[in-house]
Write a structure and sequence with these properties.
OB fold (Dihydrolipoamide Acetyltransferase, E2P), 10 helices, iron, iron-sulfur, rRNA processing, Rossmann fold, 444 residues, alpha/beta
């Protein structure tokens, strides 16, 4: 017999409730934390010591979420946002706090997460890999929206807690060469015959020149392509159309690359427009050099790089003369890594494609190594670390985009006889709450 499910109304957020409360601290997502009748309330955009009026948007049994309505008293640390789009755009969420204080909060948050999730860890002093607070981002994806009724075209970022596209004409965290592209690109795209076929637009500051990558769901006419070529020539940028299944059509320019500045010279890494690269080029360069310094590979050392991507760390490690194995789960990234190794004449590095969430000990590359580097996704490297004893490295560098998984995974390392020797916060995303870190574990 067929059964029909009728969703029950969400009574916890049926009617907003406006209240005043005092913010006591920030959580790891940079949300203000207050108390209301003994219940924790999370308030994005609020700072400690501030008295705020908020609207309760979600009222659960153990906590509540609220929207900031008004500042009744203002923290001495609060600053006015640099970006005119800050209150509506969903890209940044920490511009109301000075950059130095942002980093202090991230450093303290990382320490607190270790104390909470891995209390047995003896923490070293936490240092920082710093970034410029502005103009640091070398890659960004903008959303587009075409209104068929008004025939209006909008290019920008998704709104804060919204799917609506907020139109922007500049962005202070983008590389200046990319920010300057937004307004003329939007103007030209809005005049194309195939404007309704446009998807997101990606801006990339490559080693050669700025690049505009336009996602299209239908083939553009020759007339539209000619307009894009004319725009690219006028702006001195590369112009690429992204079709389905990662097929790129270069209207102007060539395959991009970025350069790592290493102790023994520069290293070029080519990539495709849709591939993942670290968006903060300066911090990425410092991070790679620090990883090489911490592992100190010598000629003949066997180094394993898990979650290697297109070789960001692997190739730098191989440039020291060590024997390097890079392992990645995405096939096209593995092929890119191999291409980059050949182009750099690095014959002492091999790349393999393996699902690192599956059993590893049957893989052809698996075996004892001298050094290990991990750069996993936000989920962490819990499954891979189960094989740490068989790999038996003397040193492990763990690069993390999620301090929660780093603190959790460190317990496995501690249980297997490793000690946390160094810990750094990476200032990869100024003006946001996102925390990146890297840690060095040494076998006792």
């Amino acid at each position: 017999m067929a059964q029909f499910f009728r969703e029950k109304p969400n009574r916890s957020s049926s009617k907003p409730q406006n209240v005043s409360l005092t913010i006591q601290s920030l959580d790891h997502l940079a949300q203000g934390i207050g108390q209301l009748q003994g219940k924790v309330v999370f308030v994005p955009g609020a700072l400690p010591t501030e008295r705020v009026k908020v609207a309760i948007t979600e009222n659960k049994k153990q906590f509540a979420k609220a929207k900031l309505i008004q500042l009744e008293s203002r923290s001495e640390q609060r600053v006015d946002a640099e970006c005119p789009h800050y209150q509506r755009c969903g890209g940044c969420d920490f511009q109301h706090l000075p950059h130095a204080e942002q980093n202090s909060h991230k450093r303290a948050t990382l320490t607190n997460l270790f104390h909470k999730l891995a209390p047995e860890t003896k923490l070293p002093a936490v240092d920082e890999v710093l970034s410029s607070p502005w103009l640091f981002r070398r890659k960004a994806r903008l959303s587009s929206w075409y209104d068929k009724a008004s025939k209006g075209f909008t290019l920008g970022f998704r709104g804060r807690e919204s799917h609506k596209v907020v139109a922007i004409d500049q962005c202070p965290v983008l590389d200046a060469s990319l920010s300057a592209l937004i307004k003329p690109v939007a103007a030209t795209l809005g005049k194309l015959q195939g404007v309704a076929a446009l998807g997101h637009v990606e801006l990339i500051a490559t080693q050669q020149q700025p690049m505009v990558v336009i996602r299209v769901v239908q083939t553009l006419s020759d007339k539209d392509k000619a307009k894009l070529v004319e725009l690219a020539q006028r702006l001195d940028c590369a112009m690429v159309l992204e079709h389905a299944d990662e097929q790129w059509e270069y209207l102007q320019g060539e395959r991009p690359y970025y350069a790592l500045q290493l102790a023994n010279g520069p290293l070029a890494l080519h990539f495709n427009p849709g591939n993942f690269i670290q968006v903060n080029g300066g911090v990425n360069n410092a991070m790679v050099n620090r990883a090489v310094e911490w592992l100190s590979p010598a000629a003949g050392d066997k180094v394993l790089d898990l979650f290697c991507g297109m070789g960001n760390f692997s190739l730098a490690l191989a440039a020291t003369g060590a024997q390097v194995i890079g392992v990645e789960g995405v096939p096209n990234l593995v092929e890119l890594a191999k291409d980059n190794a050949r182009a750099a004449n690095l014959a002492n590095v091999e790349f393999f494609c393996s699902d690192l969430n599956e059993p590893l000990d049957k893989a052809p590359w698996f075996g004892k190594v001298d050094k290990l580097l991990l750069d996993p996704s936000r989920a962490g490297a819990f499954e891979a670390l189960a094989y740490l004893a068989k790999l038996s490295p003397t040193q492990v560098v763990y690069v993390s985009c999620n301090p929660l998984s780093l603190a959790r995974d460190s317990q496995q390392l501690l249980k297997q006889g490793y000690q946390l020797e160094k810990l750094s916060v990476l200032d990869m995303f100024p003006q946001t709450h996102h925390i990146e870190a890297m840690a060095l574990f040494v076998r006792k």
